[in-house]
Design a protein that fits this description.
- The protein is an alpha+beta fold and about 160 residues long.
- The protein contains four helices and ten strands.
- Strands 2-5-6-1-7-10-9-8-3-4 form a ten-stranded mixed sheet.
- The chain starts with 9 loop residues before the first strand and ends with a helix.
- About 30% of the residues are buried.
- It comes from Nocardia albiluteola.
- InterPro entries: Glyas_Bleomycin-R_OHBP_Dase, VOC_core.
- This is VOC family protein.
């Protein structure tokens, strides 16, 4: 039996898009999502984020909502080079990643490295969320995001879920 990197449930499905409003409308009509929380101009800086092993500096519009317990995330890159702009250049808009929250984030990152799985982008959002995108392209999966969610970010997610 192979030990899973992220044995917990999938908590998020995310799309990278070129028109966040149009994708919100489509997913609202498709799934009955009532409300999206729009987070414009979220900055990821070189002090806390890397892309392909180098400091990263980029900005993206983010929209979040829920369908039941599943978080939907839309990401529209607006400035800089990132895993998101790379995806748009190679694939166009579409399903980008699924996210899981391993019980031990650091152990999951080490396990990925031990298996030779590249971490394409990673970062820390003011101590409230750590994330790492694992490259799944060789297996036909764009990316798997591993996340560790802090209490303030969790509270924000719960508020968004209550309104969705």
């Amino acid at each position: 039996m192979v030990d899973a990197l992220a044995p917990g449930p999938i908590t998020q499905i995310a799309w990278v898009v070129t028109d966040i409003a149009a994708t919100e409308q489509f997913l609202t009509a498709s799934f009955g999502v009532r409300k999206w929380a729009r987070l414009p101009d979220v900055h990821f800086g070189p002090e806390t984020c890397t892309y392909r092993g180098e400091p990263a500096d980029f900005t993206a519009h983010i929209a979040l909502s829920y369908h039941g317990e599943m978080q939907f995330e839309l990401i529209q890159p607006v400035r800089g080079v990132s895993i998101y702009t790379e995806f748009l250049e190679h694939s166009g808009p579409g399903l980008h990643h699924i996210c899981s929250e391993p019980a031990d984030f650091d152990a999951a990152i080490r396990a990925a490295a031990d298996r030779g799985i590249d971490i394409v982008q990673q970062g820390d959002m003011s101590g409230q969320m750590r994330f790492a995108y694992l490259d799944g392209a060789a297996s036909g999966v764009p990316f798997l995001e591993l996340a560790e969610i802090g209490p303030n970010m969790r509270t924000m997610f719960e508020q968004i879920k209550a309104q969705a």
